[in-house]
Design goal:
The chain is α+β, with helices and mostly antiparallel strands and 507 residues long. The strands form three sheets. The chain has a six-stranded antiparallel β-barrel with strand order 5-6-7-10-9-8. The chain has a six-stranded antiparallel barrel with strand order 11-12-13-16-15-14. It has a four-stranded antiparallel beta sheet with strand order 1-4-2-3, covered by helices on one side. The longest helix is centred in the N-terminal third of the chain and has 27 residues. It is elongated and about 85 Å long.
């Protein structure tokens, strides 16, 4: 009997197919970044190949494996990303985001052309393909959030398209498929991540939270019908390309929507935090190991508060056209406030210049700013900066609550004002008197209007909370005060703020 030539043999393969297969057969570049461009090109080729859909599926699976290898090598580079992104890091980020979008489209095209009978021949189900596609969109969302860029156009529409099409393919009279449960878990994890105010998290905090939700977002409640009261519910629209919106902040327009709430997830996170505080190790609870440290416990607590009650804008913001100067890095700010020695040891990048910003809008709690001129670096959600509206105006101390950057020359910040002014001081633990044990810090004045006493702001981890000596220089004389710390008021990956009481004064 005459044998039929293999459909992907050299005799019948197109030049495009030969190029794809030849590239897949190669060892890959030692630099994963160099593989990004050809990989994306070959993913785009899949849909144009004049091959049976099952051959395209096999090729897509091989390209997906290569994508996972590239992703594993390059994604860690984004964990310490600060804004604005350096050019090479921006290239990595855009490549990974585009890669996941391309793969999502490739799987959707295969689903469009393949019949269940064809997939059954190669032991695949439509739900498995939907799960692959949704997983790529989940990675696309995470990568976008890590570098604080706006959600890519069409992402939330595609997420809902995969979910609803997968649900419509399920036989309502059959046993609920395990793959559909996994699809729901992927969707719930993305919704919970978006509801946790991710723009206020540093990249490592965000990556940790995504890891936590991959296993524990199952408790998120989904419902196609609107609830009786807004309470803690949020919604997304099947035909609206936007991230989730709190129902209490804005009701949805007419149309098909998906409603969800994270109250049970907040309860679960609260139980986990209580057990961790009681000394149970994270491994024993099936939790990420990072939760052994207070930094990530603080991250989970902040997310828990957002899940418990979605944040709503408390005040109307006013549009203003005001120019302002911003001082980046604690070391520079400490020096600008009168610090006369070396800057904070935690600041490795020191730029003595200030940048000029425009105030987009302002409210009682803070500002939204956009960079107009000047070179800045090292911005991350949770860091502290100084802001003033004139050369003679005092430096207001602000916390970066969120940051967005569409490209290397664009930067927007949401700032919370911590204090209208500050003083550069030094502190050291009471039992250490050596000069090198002193820590540069900012003394924030008391704010009776919000029932806050004097407070100290330091770089995160620069000072262990314990009785300390406050060293102030006034009119050429040192004032030394023994103090006792009280509550921790703010704790981010970059700074911490705590209040204290003075015990005595020594001139």
């Amino acid at each position: 009997m005459r044998r039929t030539a293999h459909p992907t043999s050299a005799a019948t393969a197109s030049p495009e197919l030969e190029e794809v297969l030849g590239w897949l057969a190669g060892p890959g570049s030692d630099d994963p970044l160099l593989d990004l461009v050809p990989l994306r090109k070959h993913i785009g080729t899949i849909d144009t190949l004049r091959r049976p859909v099952l051959h395209r599926l096999k090729i897509a699976e091989l390209l997906q494996l290569r994508a996972e290898r590239i992703d594993a090598a390059l994604l860690p580079l984004l964990l310490d990303a600060k804004l604005p992104l350096p050019h090479q890091l921006a290239t990595v980020a855009q490549g990974l985001i585009g890669l996941r979008a391309d793969l999502g489209e490739a799987w959707l095209a295969i689903l469009r052309d393949a019949t269940p009978e064809e997939l059954h021949k190669v032991h695949r189900t439509p739900l498995e393909i939907y799960l692959r596609g949704l997983d790529n969109l989940s990675r696309q969302l995470t990568a976008s959030l890590l570098v604080s860029i706006p959600t890519p156009i069409g992402l939330w529409l595609n997420i809902q398209r995969f979910y609803h099409q997968a649900g419509n393919s399920v036989d309502p009279t059959a046993t609920y498929p395990a793959e559909m449960s996994q699809i729901e878990l992927r969707l719930k994890a993305m919704l919970a991540l978006a509801a946790a105010q991710p723009e206020g998290l540093a990249p490592r905090e965000l990556a940790f939270l995504a890891d936590y939700l991959a296993d524990h977002a199952v408790t998120v409640r989904l419902d196609p019908m609107p609830p009786d009261t807004p309470a803690d519910w949020l919604w997304i629209g099947a035909n609206i390309d936007q991230q989730p919106v709190a129902l209490g902040r804005r009701p949805p327009p007419p149309g098909e929507h998906l409603f969800f709430r994270c109250g049970s997830l907040a309860d679960l996170a609260g139980n986990h935090l209580k057990q961790l505080a009681d000394g149970t190790p994270p491994d024993a609870l099936g939790l990420p190991r990072q939760l052994a440290g207070s930094d990530y416990q603080n991250t989970l607590e902040r997310a828990r508060q957002c899940w418990l009650m979605p944040r709503r804008r408390s005040y109307n913001r006013q549009q203003r056209e005001v120019r302002a100067q911003v001082c980046i890095h604690l070391g520079n700010l400490w020096a600008a406030l009168g610090g006369k020695s070396e800057a904070l040891a935690q600041d490795n990048v020191l730029d003595p210049t200030t940048s000029e910003w425009g105030v987009l809008n302002e409210g009682p709690a803070g500002y939204a700013m956009v960079l107009l001129s000047g070179r800045v670096s090292g911005i991350v959600a949770g860091c502290a900066i100084g802001l003033r509206t004139g050369d003679q105006a005092p430096w207001q101390i602000c916390l970066v609550r969120w940051a967005r950057s569409e490209h290397s020359d664009h930067l927007e910040l949401g700032l919370e004002v911590l204090a209208p002014s500050a003083e550069a001081v030094r502190i050291q633990t009471t039992n250490h008197r050596q000069q090198d044990s002193q820590v540069a810090a900012l003394l924030l004045p008391a704010l009776p209007a919000i029932n806050r006493t004097e407070a100290i702001l330091t770089a995160r981890g620069a000072f262990n909370l314990s009785p300390f000596t406050l060293i102030q220089e006034k009119t050429g004389r040192l004032q030394i005060t023994e103090c006792a710390p009280e509550r921790t008021l703010i704790e981010t990956s970059s700074v911490e703020v705590f209040d204290f009481v003075r015990l005595n004064n020594q001139a």
